[in-house]
Design the sequence.
């Protein structure tokens, strides 16, 4: 479609939508006396309910964009415009609105969200200290071999079955998390799982992550944990049948909310004790994971702070594509029913 044709069509559409609004204004003028009465009643109601008054004042009926979009939709339905052409006309008519919308979907909007994201630190695990600054012990210590133990799986093929996380790791780098049912810890597990997945993908070392829930009522804790387990990809989650103390061979401290064990070749390299569960992944834990996969902390920090690649915009089907797909009667255009089906399909994408 040429620029001249676009200009004529844009002028015609603006005039038509403007004319319809002028007609509505004339009709309102004819009922001036009635409008005055209604206005007084509306003011009285507004004083009684100011929130309702604000809502009515913000109705989109008077917005010229609404009338313009409606008219474009009618032309698309009649087959006189494609969606691409309608989009170009809308951009020409309301360029500022279009720029704001595009900025929210990507570009500067995406960059701003990325800048506001929390920067991930990866620190020396030897510098880890508890919040109280006291030496606390829970679970197997560095240098010790992790003994086999059983938990009840909560997800996938392991759901309801006894499994041994140590055997499943097969000597590969492993992160074992022993935690109570604290909701803050479960929220923090989402962030740690995401970062471990990134490290696993970049390092290609087969990093294995397991979380064991500890509680005095394992059956109730299982039901609670299943609500989260399926949403944590790459994580093996289970419940200890031994209650809040956990497997006896591990020597866990029941007063500790979360114990994180990092191991390699079946032996503990680092042990982290959190009296209160992690809400965000601890930098020292990430440093220990970096060492387990044989990477420098600076390298892992770079991986975790990489800006996500911008998603490619989805291609909108052409008019020919839509006719080929939805033209059921074979007349070369979309009738009302076929056009409605096409719009529904586009909204789902």
Sequence:
């Amino acid at each position: 479609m040429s620029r001249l044709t676009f200009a004529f069509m844009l002028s015609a559409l603006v005039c038509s939508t403007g004319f319809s609004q002028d007609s509505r204004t004339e009709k309102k003028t004819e009922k001036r006396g009635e409008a005055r009465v209604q206005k007084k009643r509306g003011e009285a109601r507004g004083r009684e309910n100011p929130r309702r008054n604000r809502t009515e004042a913000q109705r989109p009926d008077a917005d010229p964009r609404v009338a313009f979009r409606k008219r474009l939709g009618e032309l698309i339905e009649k087959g006189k415009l494609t969606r691409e052409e309608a989009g170009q006309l809308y951009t020409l008519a309301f360029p500022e609105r279009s720029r704001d919308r595009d900025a929210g979907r990507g570009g500067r909007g995406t960059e701003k969200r990325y800048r506001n994201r929390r920067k991930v630190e990866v620190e020396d695990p030897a510098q880890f200290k508890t919040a109280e600054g006291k030496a606390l012990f829970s679970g197997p210590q560095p240098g010790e071999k992790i003994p086999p133990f059983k938990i009840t799986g909560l997800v996938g093929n392991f759901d309801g079955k006894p499994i041994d996380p140590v055997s499943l790791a097969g000597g590969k780098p492993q992160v074992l998390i022993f935690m109570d049912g604290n909701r803050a810890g479960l929220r923090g597990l989402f962030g740690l799982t995401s970062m471990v997945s990134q490290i696993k993908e970049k390092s290609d070392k087969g990093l294995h992550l397991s979380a064991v829930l500890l509680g005095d009522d394992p059956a109730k804790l299982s039901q609670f944990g299943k609500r989260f387990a399926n949403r944590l990809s790459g994580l093996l989650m289970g419940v200890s049948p031994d209650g809040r103390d956990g497997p006896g061979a591990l020597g866990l401290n029941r007063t500790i909310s979360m114990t994180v064990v990092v191991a390699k070749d079946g032996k503990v390299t680092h042990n982290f004790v959190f009296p209160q569960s992690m809400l965000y992944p601890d930098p020292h834990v990430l440093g220990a994971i970096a060492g387990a996969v044989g990477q420098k902390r600076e390298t892992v920090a770079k991986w975790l702070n990489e800006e996500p690649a911008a998603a490619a915009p989805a291609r909108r089907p052409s008019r020919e594509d839509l006719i080929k797909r939805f033209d059921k009667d074979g007349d070369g255009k979309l009738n009302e029913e076929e056009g409605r089906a096409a719009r529904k399909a586009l909204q789902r994408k």
In short: The radius of gyration is 31 Å.
